Description:
With 168 residues, the chain is of the alpha/beta class.
Amino acid sequence: MKVYESKDIRNVGVVGHGDSGKTTLTAGLLFTAGASNRLLRVDEGNTITDFDEEEIQRKITISTAIAVAEWRKTKINILDTPGYNIFINDTRAALVAADAALVLVDGVGGVEVEFAVDEPGDVGELQHGHGYVADGDRGVEFFAGANGGDEVGEVGVGHGVGANEVGG
Length: 168
């Protein structure tokens, strides 16, 4: 197992409301980084981060899962978090460890109730935050960057994945 210096490790939380595409984006990031040899799918029940039988059956994330990818000599711990508010405490706990967050919003459904940040400090400690609009079969597009970035597909720690590489 490769050993990384702490300066070469990033923890990135993937957050958004339920069914916004967090696990699909995570699968796309892992495939693009070479951590998986094919693009895995929630509908097929074979994603790396939704491995529990109940998660596979319901096709939702119930607890935060960590997936690891290497990109440009940096180890990225991707924290795929639950989106439904019944599991919000698990999402909050994951964000404590996150250096950055990828925020997804469904491109068709828009912002939903679960997406609201109800505690001012929930994401206030993150160093970087970026937003994505996920639209099921049409992919994922970048829409905003907390650090002023505007590159399509920009990920919070400066690594990119194009919308066509993630979409179903």
